[in-house]
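Section: Multi-chain targets

For targets with more than one molecule, the full set of components is provided together so that the structure can be written out for the assembly as a whole rather than chain by chain. Components appear in the order listed by the source. The example entry contains two components.
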Amino acid sequence: MDTSNLLFAETHEWVRVADEGGERVATIGISAHAVEQLGDLTFLESAEEGSTVAAGEPFGEVESVKATSDMYSPVDGVIIAVNRDLTNKLDVLNSDPYGEGWIVKVRLTDDGALKRLLDYDTYQKQVVEHGG
Amino acid sequence: MAGNEPLRVDHWIDDPLADGAWNMAFDQFLMEQCEQTGQSFLRFYRWTPATLSLGYFQSYHDRSRHVASLGVPVVRRTTGGGAIVHDIELTYSLVIPNRERWSRAHEDLVEYVHRLLIVAIQQRTGLTLGFSRDLGQKQLMSDEEPFLCFLRRHPLDVVSNQHKLVGSAQRRSRGALLQHGSILIGRSLFAPELPGVLELCGQRFDAELLVQELKQEVLRAVGLEGTAAMAVNVERVKQIAASRFGHSDWTLRR
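Its structure, encoded as tokens over all components, is:
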């Protein structure tokens, strides 16, 4: 698992930014730690393609057996793809959270929020210090 | 909450009977208040008319699976799980600051409140209750889950003689955690397959008296016994009810 190109929000979402067709596109998911803490997942839902998302604002929800939790966008932009395969295969979030477990792709409209995100090592340190 | 520390709550609210949109809007309002002030809230409430609440992810059309409740109004909760017929029933909501919304430690809060209710119901009625996990009840697989919450089983559900009497679920935002739960006091005409505390203990208790006694037990446990219930911003609750929980876009969203 290559985590060197990932950035993390303190709220446990991850981002991988790449150039696609001349545009900056952020692939977003939730961290392995968050998935582990949630336990058995039952549902996941995100905003649809074309929706505008703002850094720090909810873009979807994930439900485990006893809890429904908001997921927060780490970036500003417009959703251009939703991973619909996840709906019936939520176990992929456990087996490959940083690959096939991606949730949405967002075309960035502003890079500013990226500066507030953490690299993998700093994020892991936060997880250890705050106990998850 | 951490470890075995007793839970302390800042305010409590004793809401009069209200409809589904108001009841759900009130919980949303308390989450907003918690996010803004860092204070915690405990609320007890009941419903009129009898209402079916859908779990957040349930399909509206699935209500056709439960014929007995087709005649009652419906509202969608922000918490997940199965549908609940709120009739001869007491609902509680507990809203606390949430610094780490993913943490499994939050399940401790379900266990803590359920343990309080087990003791309180046992003391008042003599009924033998326990956690589903301790009474050998099977957990149902997700693709077999019944429509009604009280026919589902989670290890922390409170059961008596194979019947579920208390269930809870959480909604976690960045700043607040809402846990609301349902205590089945008596059998409803709109969910006749579900006996409540009164039926299981032989109907020797007055429903209203039992509700009041359960409230007092919980208030005592969280350090609020003898304190006055908090007044709230009614206009904001009305606003949330009208724009979200009373709106068909919300109820029919899936």
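The mean pLDDT of chain A is 90.
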